[in-house]
Specification:
With 149 residues, the protein is mostly helical. The chain folds into two domains: 102 residues; 34 residues. It contains six helices and no strands. This is Protein SYS1 homolog. Belongs to the SYS1 family. It is found in: Golgi apparatus membrane. Keywords: Golgi apparatus, Membrane, Protein transport, Transmembrane, Transmembrane helix, Transport.
Amino acid sequence: MFYGTVVWDPWLIVAQIVCLQCLYYLTLGVFLSFFVGTRVSRMSLVYFFDFATVATSTVTGWCVIASFLLSSIAGAGYMLYLIERAKKCLDFSATLYIIHLFICIMYGDGNSEKFPSHDIDQMFDDKESITKKFLEAFIVFRCFGGAEC
């Protein structure tokens, strides 16, 4: 492909995203089976999609962390071969991890007690106080900016 001509090809982009995602999970599965599979009696999707397994308190957690890091390095190599453009690599890597985040949220059903979403919901429950804090900050900004208060 000539790099001077830019052609909008959405099917190519979707195919690259799907291929990259499949290669990432395949590589992650190989590394998890090599590192974690030797330590646990039964492998499951928990090691792929549950954030509680990524822990520094156990050796198995460190093996999960090593698997994710090594599959990320392999993913960079896949991008070098599949994407072929440095400008697009950030977009594709962000897409890969955003899709992984959504899969993790769907796998965990989104209402795990360990997941900090309830804290975020409580913080934004009172819309009036948020609006009040925003207005106070705006008034303070205007006063220090030299405007008449």
